[in-house]
Design a protein that fits this description.
single chain; WD40; protease; 6-blade_b-propeller_TolB-like; serine-type endopeptidase activity; signal; four-stranded antiparallel sheet
């Protein structure tokens, strides 16, 4: 009998990109034997994602889906006996807490509050519940807010007397996210932040990692920015503590630090609180140091002053002697173990991107991805070593698609300092053939285009269409030491542009299959700013440009945006205090030199880089007679998230590249 011929793999497609299953939210059971996690699948017809819960044993056996009801299930938490899972679900019509026993049966609804549960935490004994809900600050009860929110005003006027009046993609409506406490079995509900004009979790991206119970369940530590009228230009997030019963007002723990304090986690014995802290006020990309605080005396130690990396996810070992953290590290996001007594740091994993981690006995469970694979669960030993796979949620996709091969390279950039980049070869690469280039410029600007599977700006989408993708981690990128990150501030169009120029030259020399006559540059956010800057200051190499949500006028951008601490740090003050800095590298002052065809993309709900910046860019292009196109998504923010919009985005961007390079 003849063996069946292997199925020929096909290039990765935009539809693959949009419909990949997305794994997140891993939680290890208290007994260390199981992991629960969320998997999001995409319903293209409904134009949205749907999340369900799955569980697997830490030894890799017993994978099964736990939920399949309509709506989303997310944010799982284990019961103390490891036999049940709590989670948030919208199946009742609002976002409430549910419970599911692992040995069978239907999930039961635990809460039925008049407002959505935004996030929650359980005490270690499983008796106490703290949850977040959006309330009017002058309302003491959930019912008060629900009643007021249901009232229909006769006027559409929105009236503000302070900032923020809108944030990220949402107009403010007079409500704050506050923490409430109650017994899990029911009973009185206490507002732990009564009258506090601050959000917990923080907005716009805070979650359940912004608050935690003490070991005895009698108090709660949470993160909030209570900055009064300075909120829009303050990064002073603080840790606060409050009794679970609300018998006393919240007390600020981090009184001496005017910069960010975040991510509180108590040690297993409850005697030590670990958290992350920055040092410089108003700088959102400052190094996050690991701090440990004695729960009784309040005495603190910084464990990582001498470690030139910024900590991310944070977890204790079972014996309380080690802390495990993630950190950007030379184009990767690795895992590190910190000895709590000495502060000694050991690298456990340095390849790929770890987005989440949890402790399971004497090993770690991590969510790991790379330029060649989306996120899956793996185990990792306390001393490092090889990853052991637990899940392969997109195995069916990887079995039928071809991907481009990635490779990291380095070169001498600004000031002859080493700069790193990645190249991803086109699918079906053949030696001796020339390929067009997609030159991808990351945002932030304090970010990284590293060994990470991106669901929006993924170089594999370009490799699948026959492009070489090149990404440069220019000065200002994260993972190369804090001085490297700091170097971009006040010099947005200087060092980074030189790095991009030298990086392109280095890639062309190292990879002669790049066709120098068919090159396009693309970027979003800061990358979009850089595209506008390139258009007037380095337009020679490019057949086309793509600008997604990028600033044209740095002066006006200050007055348009919402988080004012960012431009005030990057430009050394306000436009009226330091006008020269806003003019130093301002793309609008170089429009006269524009000549390269440009695709402009913008989201109507982007309040970080407002849509008029994109409209102004397109207007200038059209008035100058430069071939250009404007793609506008009125229902998207700084990112294009809706599945059908993502498909259109990729079709328009790839079509634009094809138009000018093929």
């Amino acid at each position: 009998m003849l063996a069946a011929a292997p199925v020929a793999k096909k290039p990765y497609t935009v539809q693959d990109q949009v419909t990949l299953k997305r794994l997140s939210g891993l939680k290890v059971s208290p007994d260390g034997l199981k992991v629960v996690f969320s998997v999001r699948v995409t319903d293209l017809e409904a134009n949205k994602g749907k999340s369900d819960l799955w569980v697997i044993n830490v030894d890799g056996t017993g994978l099964r889906q736990l939920t399949s009801a309509d709506g989303n299930e997310s944010d799982p938490t284990w019961s103390p006996d490891s036999r049940s899972i709590y989670f948030l679900a919208t199946r009742s019509g609002s976002n409430q807490l549910w419970k599911l026993a692992l040995d069978g049966g239907e999930a039961t609804q635990v809460t039925n509050f008049p407002l959505d549960v935004e996030a929650y935490a359980l005490s270690r004994d499983g008796q106490n519940l703290v949850f977040a809900a959006e309330v009017f600050v002058d309302c003491d009860t959930l019912e008060c807010t629900a009643k007021r929110a249901a009232e229909k005003p006769k006027s559409s006027a929105q009236i503000y007397d302070s900032l923020f009046f809108r944030h990220w993609d949402t107009w403010k409506h007079g409500r704050r996210s506050h923490l409430f406490a109650t017994k899990l079995s029911g009973g009185p509900i206490v507002n732990l932040q009564k009258k506090q004009n601050a959000d917990a979790p923080t907005r716009p991206f805070g979650g359940s990692n912004d608050f935690t119970f003490s070991a005895d369940g009698k108090s709660v530590v949470y993160v909030a920015r209570d900055a009064g009228r300075e909120e829009a230009w303050s990064t002073d997030l603080d840790l606060w503590t409050v009794p679970f019963d609300g018998s006393k007002a919240p007390v600020k723990l981090t009184t001496s630090n005017r910069a960010t304090d975040t991510s509180p986690v108590f040690s297993p014995d409850g005697k030590t609180l670990a958290y992350l802290a920055m040092s410089r006020p108003k700088f959102e990309a400052d190094k996050l140091r690991v701090i440990v605080r004695d729960s009784v005396s309040g005495k603190e130690r910084s464990l990582t002053d001498s470690w030139d990396r910024s900590a991310g996810a944070l977890a204790w070992s079972g014996d309380g002697k080690s802390l495990f953290v993630t950190a950007d590290d030379v184009g990767q996001v690795g895992v590190f173990r910190i000895d709590v007594a000495s502060g000694e740091v050991k690298k456990l994993l340095s390849d790929g991107n770890v987005s989440e981690l949890g402790v399971a006995g004497n090993s770690l469970v991590v969510a790991h991805d790379s330029l060649k694979a989306a996120s899956d669960l793996f185990t990792l030993g306390f001393d490092g070593g090889a990853l052991k796979r637990l899940t392969d949620v997109n195995a069916d996709v990887w079995a039928r698609v071809q991907l481009g091969e990635p490779e990291q390279f380095s070169f001498k950039g600004w000031n002859n300092e080493t700069v790193y980049g990645y190249v991803v070869k086109p699918v079906g690469f053949a030696a001796g053939k020339k390929y067009p280039l997609a030159f991808l410029i990351h945002g932030g600007p304090q970010g990284s285009f590293g060994n990470h599977w991106h669901y929006r700006w993924n170089p594999q989408a370009y490799a699948a269409k026959g492009y070489v993708a090149v990404m440069i981690d220019f000065h200002g990128s994260t993972g190369y030491g804090q001085s490297f990150t700091d170097s971009i501030s006040g010099d947005w169009g200087g060092k980074p542009l030189e790095d991009l120029q030298k990086g392109l030259a280095a890639a062309q020399e190292k990879y002669p299959f790049i066709d120098k006559n068919r090159q396009c540059a693309l970027g979003a956010s800061y990358g979009g700013f850089m595209i506008n800057w390139i258009a007037g200051n380095w337009n020679e190499p490019w057949k086309c440009l793509v600008n997604h949500d990028g600033n044209l006028d740095e002066r006006m951008a200050y007055f348009d945006t919402e988080e004012l601490w960012f431009p005030e740090w990057e430009h050394g003050g306000t436009p009226w205090e330091n006008p020269a800095s806003y003019a130093k590298h301002n793309p609008i002052d170089h429009v006269a030199k524009w000549k390269t065809p440009m695709l402009v993309v913008h989201g109507g709900k982007d309040y970080r880089v407002v849509d008029t910046q994109g409209m102004s860019t397109f207007t200038a292009l059209q008035r100058k007679g430069i071939p250009s196109k404007f793609v506008y998504f009125p229902d998207e923010n700084h990112w294009v998230l809706k599945p059908q919009n993502s498909i259109v985005w990729h079709e328009q961007v790839l079509g634009w590249l094809d138009q000018w390079t093929k």
